[in-house]
Amino acid sequence: MLHTRNRLLKEIERWQTQGWITPEGAAGIKADVAARRSGLGLAQVLATLAAVLIGFAAMSFVAANWHDLSKLARLAVIFTGLWSSLAVAGALLQAGRGGFAHAALLAAVAIYGGGIMLIAQAYQMDGHPPDAVLLWGLGALAGGLLTRSNPVLAAALVLFVVWHWMELGETWNEVHWAFLPAWACVAGGFAITRWRPGLHLVCLAIASWVIEYGYLFGSEAVRGHLTVTLIGLGIVAAGILVGPAIDRWRQVSGAMMLYGFAIAFAGAMALQFVVDRHGTHTLLYGAIVLFAIVAALAWSWRTDNKAALWTAYAAFSIEIFSLYVKKIGTLLGTSAFFLAAGLFVAALAFVAFRLHRATSDQPGEPA
User: Fold this and answer.
1) CB 136, CB 116: distance < 8 Å
2) Where are the domains of the chain?
3) φ, ψ for residue 192 (rounded to 5)?
């Protein structure tokens, strides 16, 4: 965000130098940019880290002296720390110190989680270990929704992901559907607060869940990875076909293109190099995937989606390298494939160049 703001300020100066905007207009734009600064300052970042460390340090200290305290004293220590953190957070919110208030809320979440573990130990509660993490995540979710705290919602998402992996470790080869309602609640919270980094966090979480889905079918791996690929392509298609309508509600079609492409590529890679272990259809799959990557590059360039563009470049490099390693035993066939792919991409580059020149040479357009 800082890099983007600095670049915008330099552009404003250039526009003023070229006479496109007046000095008064430039000053007004700069003032508006300064007023809209919403990024976390260094003090708030350090306060957040400090709050989490202090929260866990306090619980570690209590745990180290746990056996010297009575059960009533143990509960008193936990609840005093929890409610004190919440009181400090409330006072900071009232004082308009939102960043520091969120740090205090994170400390409360840390104490709450530590309290769950210590109480379970004190009363010798034997149960399903992932349930403790789920309870911790639900508490963080409730706190994040009630206070509209983005850091606390992010912590809840992390806890739900940890819970998901713990459950998956005990029931491998079974899809963990219970993760979806928890994920949806966090996604709804970020939709309410309109925190764009939160959008990427929930997209990463659900993308990893979808990709993981393909590996949970054993002998039916083709169906699993094919389903993942089709889900990714469906997200891409939705972003393309109804993107303008979606963007009237939230500017998310670009993110849909990015994560949909990543999911489809992960599924396609699994089909090529996990399912097709013997390389029977590797070059055919490779040709299809390369064509799809080139199409994604073209669309990302056309829509100025830089994140998707660089992701497609990375996917192209990964695909080419993987094909080379897979087919290195048949160098003649591999060279012919790469030659054909190179000529095809070169032809597309030539067509794109001619279209760009034709557009640039139109009357009224800068050459």
Assistant:
1) yes
2) 1-31, 220-359
3) -70, -45
